[in-house]
Amino acid sequence: MTTPIRIVIVDDHPMVAEGIQSILESYDDIEVVGVLTNGTDAVAQVETLAPDVMLLDLNMPGVSGLNATEMILEKLPKTRILILSMHDSPEYISTALRHGASGYVLKDVPTEEIHTAITTVMAGEQYLCTGARGSLSPNTADGREPLTGREQTILLELAQGKSNKEVAGVLDISVRTVETHRQNIKRKLGISSTAGLTRYAMEHGVLQGTGRI
Predict the structure, then answer these.
(1) What does the pLDDT look like over 6-64, one tens digit per residue?
(2) How much is the pTM?
(3) Which of 12, 30, 90, 134 has the maximal Cβ count within 10 Å?
(4) What single DSSP character describes residue 82?
(5) DSSP 117-173
(6) Max intra-chain CA distance, the chain
């Protein structure tokens, strides 16, 4: 008998996590070895739980899903990160992939598709659900120079109202580095103010103001 695929689910909404767990435990080739509620715990426990695939929400308290993806892959590079999200923004999808995620699946997909996504990334392939694929295009619509993964992360933190010093503390980088990234972000987006960055983040789905991801 083939060894089951070890899965860890990370989502700060218990009903969502429990629903996904119930779905996955109905498959003989899946073993759910952990259910966590935030990115901080995911990073701290990934080596102990040793999942083959981690199903990771993006918008969580503490360490965000994007930062958690980077940190988890630094510890266990062979772990596949499969993002589960309510949000089909192309900025979020492309940023998650640049941070190292192996796939992106919307939470409203059929049960079978989550299982298909897991087996696909376990085979070393990238998986995007139909809704995610439809949101992506090869180039940005306006031809702007795209933001790097790190710039997307910093934009998200700045748009949440954090100062350069606070962002530096969260990402464990220098204040000067944050300022350099901030200037590059403004240049690439053609935005001169922090308020403009926040507005861009909200309009393009980088910052989810009232809903959840």
Answers:
(1) 999 999 888 889 999 999 999 999 999 999 999 999 999 999 999 999 999 988 877 88
(2) 0.65
(3) 30
(4) E
(5) HHHHHHTT--EE-HHHHHH--SS-TT-PPPPPHHHHHHHHHHHTT--HHHHHHHHT-
(6) 59
